[in-house]
Amino acid sequence: MNFVHSTSGTGNNAVAVTRVSDMQWHAMEDDRTVARGDASRRPDGRLFVSIDAWHSAVFDRMANAMLADLPTPLYTVVDEADTDSRSAWERVGFAAARREWGYVVPTDPQVTGLGSVRPPSGVTIVPAGDADEGPLRALDRIIRDEVEAAVGWQTMPAEVLPRPAGTTVIDPSKYAVARHLDQYVGLVRVAPLTRQPRIGLIAVRADRHRRGIARSLLAHALGSLYGSGAAAAWAEVDESNAAATALFEGIGARRAAGTLELVRR
């Protein structure tokens, strides 16, 4: 695919924006690449775009070329502190849709106060790597369907990874689960990254909310990280999720970043 959009350049030369593949664009000026644009479809079906450009004029031309080629709605993500990036996307018609807070989460049970937390009666925590894959995948699908029917999965912080169509559990070894009798009722996913482990998801079936299961899963996950030598973990929470915000801030998590999701409809 080779659609070319010619525009005036940053100096005296024209900038040619070329769609080099279904999801990639290049902006060339005088045989130099002056911007790159990418689009990617996330597992929830939404189309996200990104642009790497040094000059605002080139950014605008790249954005307009991509917008002419792609269907709406389109989404992008910016660091809340990066006002230049936010302004650039707003210039081409994007507007803030949601905000996500990033937290540094201590793992020391003396700091979190989770050292004495035990699962509710009848509930046991199955450590990461020990969960049965079939029931784990079934639980993940139930939780995703419940979230989609309520607030929508797009409000959940997502660890976006390449995955086969329809697959949501990529690496079962990253999941610890809460089991009540013979049923899996909650899960927590931890990516053991070298620099700082990431709590990618913590969720409980809707019919088991408000029983302390999520808190028990978090206590288990953080305790395991502490035992392996990690002093802190990272987690993202949608600002509208009051329960998750209260859970993390209640154990001493520190808000360290904000991310804005922008949309053009």
UniProtKB/TrEMBL annotation:
<dbReference type="GO" id="GO:0016747">
    <property type="term" value="F:acyltransferase activity, transferring groups other than amino-acyl groups"/>
</dbReference>
<protein>
    <submittedName>
        <fullName>GCN5 family acetyltransferase</fullName>
    </submittedName>
</protein>
<keyword id="KW-0808">Transferase</keyword>
<dbReference type="InterPro" id="IPR016181">
    <property type="entry name" value="Acyl_CoA_acyltransferase"/>
</dbReference>
<dbReference type="InterPro" id="IPR000182">
    <property type="entry name" value="GNAT_dom"/>
</dbReference>
<dbReference type="Pfam" id="PF00583">
    <property type="entry name" value="Acetyltransf_1"/>
</dbReference>
<feature type="domain" description="N-acetyltransferase">
    <location>
        <begin position="123"/>
        <end position="265"/>
    </location>
</feature>
